[in-house]
Write a structure and sequence with these properties.
The structure holds two protein chains of two kinds.
Chain A lengths: L2 H5 L20 H23 L2 H20 L1 H11 L1 H11 L7 H13 L15 H12 L1 H4 L38 H8 L5 H6 L11 H13 L6 H20 L7 H6 L3 H8 L10 H21 L6 H18 L12
Helix pairs in contact in A: 2-3, 2-5, 2-11, 3-4, 3-5, 3-6, 5-6, 5-7, 6-7, 7-16, 11-14, 12-14, 12-15, 15-16
Chain B lengths: L14 H4 L4 E2 L5 E5 L9 E2 L6 E2 L4 E4 L8 E2 L4 E10 L5 E9 L20 H10 L12 H5 L9 E6 L8 H8 L1 H15 L3 E7 L3 H14 L8 E6 L8 H9 L14 E5 H13 L5 E7 L7 E6 L4 H7 L7 E6 L6 E2 L13 E6 H4 L12 H5 L6 H9 L3 H6 L10 H5 L6 H14 L6
Parallel strand pairs in B: 1-14, 9-10, 9-12, 10-11, 13-17
Antiparallel strand pairs in B: 2-8, 3-5, 4-7, 5-6, 7-8, 13-14, 15-16, 15-17
The chains are: A mainly alpha, B alpha/beta.
Amino acid sequence: MSDLASREHEPDSLILRAAPYVSRSLTTPRLMTEVLIALVPVVAAAVVFFGPSALLVLAASTLGSVLAEWAFGGRRGFAAAFRDGSAPLTGLLLGLTLPPAIPLWMAVLGGAVAIALGKTVFGGLGQNVFNPALVGRAFLQAAFPTVLTTWSPPAGEATPWLAWRATNFAFPFLSRPGVDAVTAATPLSLAKFQGVTTAVPSLLSGHTAGSLGETSAGLLLLLGLVMAVRRLFDWRIPLAILLAVAAFGGLLHVLLPARCPSPLFLLFSGGLLLGAVFMATDPVTSPVTPRGAWVFGAGIGVLVVLIRLFGGLPEGVMYAVLLMNAMVPHVDRWTQPRPFGRGRAA
Amino acid sequence: MKTFQHGVHPAEHKDATADSPTRRLPFAAHYVLPLAQHGGRPSKAIVTPGVRVERGDPVAEPDGFVSTTLCAPVAGTVTAVERRRHPSGAMVDAIEIAADPWSPQRLPSREPLDWAAMPLEEFVTQVQRAGIVGLGGAAFPSHVKYKVPEGRKLERLAVNGCECEPYLTCDHRLMVERPEAVVRGAMILGAKLGVREIVVGVEANKPDGIAALERAAKEAAGSTDGPTVDVVPLDVKYPQGAEKMLIRALWREEVPAGKLPLDLGVLVNNVQTMAALADWFDAGVPLIERWLTVSGPGVREPANLVVPIGTSVRDILHHCGGLLPEAREVVLGGPMMGQPLATLDVPVLKGTSGILAFTEARAARPTEYACLKCGRCLEACSNFLNPSRLARLARAGRFDDMDRAFAMDCMECGACSWSCPSNIPIVQLIRVAKSEIRKHGKGKK
């Protein structure tokens, strides 16, 4: 070698790694952050429709999740959950499924249960079977059925927009929630129990009673589209859910027009879009295979229609997602891809 | 546009060198030729220290059929036949030649070989004699592919101009600068083997390469009694240059697992291999040099170079202005499947398609997060495996289960690791597990 070469810069030692040496810029924490950013408009809509007190509920459930991660996740688990942002995301998602008037202590409890029973007991992020936010909500629904089915009208209708809701500050286990609140029915319970169908435009805009984050179908649809284009989730899942609800709901609507509302109403009411865009798409609790995503989404869609139209509850998205969560290992097993050069075409 | 299913789109990073004309590296003082240059058995040295060799003279002969001749890249004197460092890190037998500083390094002038008249047997021996191996990186002796077993026939020749690895542009430059050599080699080979179709698959990010090849193909039409050369643009996607994926892209056919392209009557060869064939049969120049790309964020002056086989990586980097102070990692080949170097004092081999240098920031081992089962690796895997599951099984040491999940089908292209947002070293885990499976004599067909 030449003298010149030896005078050139040379690293003291070279790093030895195995290929590949390049990777995509998307990382798991960034994925979580992007989902959190996508939730900002949903939070904003919650504030617009239900007043600033919505923020209190969302903060409470998020706080519950973070506290539980700290208490049960172990020191490493806690650090990891902060690094990847999964704990606050779970808490926030739970908060968006809660009624606006829920006592804050219940929201904190729900957030804690979501992490403790929904995630930590399974071994932490990536190991859980059920969507943690929905586990938290299922717990609240079982523990406090009245509160979880007591809905407030949009803020500004019966109460001033800025006013705090007294029920939010109910003391744990002492005051009876719901007594002094102004209540309203969600479009789904109106349809189920009173036969009144809310018009699609107000469903799209979100000016109806309902959970904090679920009312504005138009906004959720738009966000879902943006997230699908940015490949933040497997687009097949929400698409399969919507197609299944439209197809199955449409079929029932044609067969039993008296009993079944139009598929458009089914698509844009209740928690369907919030569930389809933000809950069912949780990668950990949905199938890993592309074909499995179709099966999973279609299963949720069919279950939602069945529960809504034939079940005792007006809404069924939560149970539909949780039930299909339980099916994921099987769906994955049935839908393993056919290896290249084996089987069919080989 | 045609392509295969699944695969990934890594940032191309080809701009640094895609438009730089290929330069010839000045001759260095020493060349080291490891006898293990390719798949199969290493060559056998036929020279001893002190022997004077001319440029292009054979210095090692094939040891068996799956082996090739090795020729001197320069005129000079053999100074040693001893163990030297191979790029893989192992010490292997090698021939060292000190270049003659006064030699004009003229190539031997020889009459073109009458390839059309010679029997196929003889043609195969000639390719072996020229030391030609697959120059896309795998370096499998080419003549072995041309010797078709009794009762089989090669019907289609696919020339691989995909160059799907990021950073690399030497094949691209070859297609732009020597398209007639690529076409000529393909037509000689196609006519000799009696194929009915010759196709060059080129990714669409090389429009000038496609245009040049099309022009050359038109000019060369009818120059042999074989078929003319068809240039087919392909979508840009990794790993399109993998044999089986190129065949899938061109003809929508799957080579059955555990079988060879030959089973579909297909032969796949790289564009540089075609040019090497043309050089041997038309000009008598054996494989003594190759085109490669020097690039990456750690190199001062990225370049495409024609390099004599056996040139040391240090000399080549020196010619490219040296490494930047922040360079920490040097890789032979592409960034997806390349091989890391522990020292710069190793020679370029016949199969070395690139020298890449990466900086500290890139080389740092990224933080690993929990597997979210997001499925991105499944959609990356062009072999339609389930990489996330294979990685999980590998960590658990469940190699039998991996074998049942077709781990041995994995071609280690690295698309899964590239695509993983949690930075899980998927292909690295599978690679280790595959060697464990092989060790236990398993690996189902």
